[in-house]
């Protein structure tokens, strides 16, 4: 594995600088986002928010504005709230204990273990899509419906506990390489789900609502947002039949996620 990594290992900003804040940012950004897009966005974030203190002190609208183009805007809200908790609870120092990290907004099983490995070189055990691909291909060839619980003991057994950071880099890069030369082994995973289309989805409407509100910089009436969203999405002079349902679902989930506020008069704002 290391021979492969020495010859074909990828070079990323968050690998050249493994300081906890950069690892923290990159791990949030890499959730459901291609590495090429994160490579472009991370330097922009670091210029505006160079540390936990500056990110925590920012308005959510600033974070969302900078996040545009990354998708899954809920992550930006979690990122912002997690930074605030790191400053308030841990005085700006990111914990390396997975249990403490798990208590932060938006950090689940994978991220609570990947951050200690990449930021602190701790031998934690975790799985993601490239790692899963490697173990399915080499240890469960041809088997269907393989659960992650069957892979985790193998990951723990093969982990380089002396240098877990470099081991995971090599493992993930090899998994990315496998994706180009074999039929995707992840389809044989019990955890495999095919992503639903973005066009016409509630997620697309959510993104359009946030894009309009961050550009406006002040409150916008619900009716105006309703109209501007379907114009922004190029849906024509009048919205399609199911548009109102998608708009209501998108706006209500944004409110529930704390990404927008709705005043008593129906005006939308970003906190």
Automatic annotation (TrEMBL):
The keyword Repressor does not apply. Residues 29-177 form the HhH-GPD domain. GO terms for molecular function: 8-oxo-7,8-dihydroguanine DNA N-glycosylase activity; adenine/guanine mispair binding; iron-sulfur cluster binding; metal ion binding; oxidized purine DNA binding; purine-specific mismatch base pair DNA N-glycosylase activity. CDD domains: ENDO3c. Its cofactor is [4Fe-4S] cluster. Keywords: DNA damage, DNA repair, Glycosidase, Hydrolase, Iron, Iron-sulfur, Metal-binding. Transmembrane segments: none annotated. SMART domains: ENDO3c (SM00478). GO terms for biological process: base-excision repair; mismatch repair. InterPro entries: DNA_glycosylase (IPR011257), HhH-GPD_domain (IPR003265), HhH_base_excis_C (IPR023170), MIG/MutY (IPR044298). Adenine glycosylase active on G-A mispairs. MutY also corrects error-prone DNA synthesis past GO lesions which are due to the oxidatively damaged form of guanine: 7,8-dihydro-8-oxoguanine (8-oxo-dGTP). Belongs to the Nth/MutY family. This is HhH-GPD domain-containing protein.
């Amino acid at each position: 594995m290391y021979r492969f990594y020495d010859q074909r290992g990828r070079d990323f900003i968050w690998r050249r600088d493994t300081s906890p804040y950069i690892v923290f940012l990159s791990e949030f950004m890499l959730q459901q986002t291609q590495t090429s897009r994160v490579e472009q966005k991370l330097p922009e974030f670091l210029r505006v928010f160079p540390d936990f203190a500056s990110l925590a002190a920012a308005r959510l609208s600033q974070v969302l504005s900078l996040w545009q183009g990354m998708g899954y805007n809920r992550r930006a809200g979690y990122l912002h709230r997690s930074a605030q908790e790191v400053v308030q609870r841990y005085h700006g120092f990111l914990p390396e204990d997975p249990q403490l990290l798990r208590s932060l907004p938006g950090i689940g099983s994978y991220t609570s273990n990947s951050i200690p490995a990449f930021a602190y070189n701790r031998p934690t055990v975790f799985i993601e899509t490239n790692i899963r691909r490697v173990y399915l291909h080499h240890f469960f060839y041809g088997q269907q419906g393989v659960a992650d619980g069957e892979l985790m003991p193998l990951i723990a057994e093969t982990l380089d506990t002396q240098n877990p950071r470099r081991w995971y880099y090599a493992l993930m890069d090899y998994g990315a390489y496998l994706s180009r030369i074999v039929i995707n082994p992840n389809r044989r995973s019990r955890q495999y789900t095919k992503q639903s289309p973005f066009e016409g989805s509630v997620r697309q409407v959510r993104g359009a609502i946030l894009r309009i509100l961050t550009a406006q910089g002040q409150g916008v009436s619900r009716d105006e947002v309703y109209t501007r969203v379907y114009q922004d999405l190029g849906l024509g002079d009048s919205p399609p039949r199911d548009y109102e349902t998608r708009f209501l679902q998108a706006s209500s989930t944004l409110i529930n996620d704390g990404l927008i506020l709705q005043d008593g008069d129906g005006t939308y704002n970003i906190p």
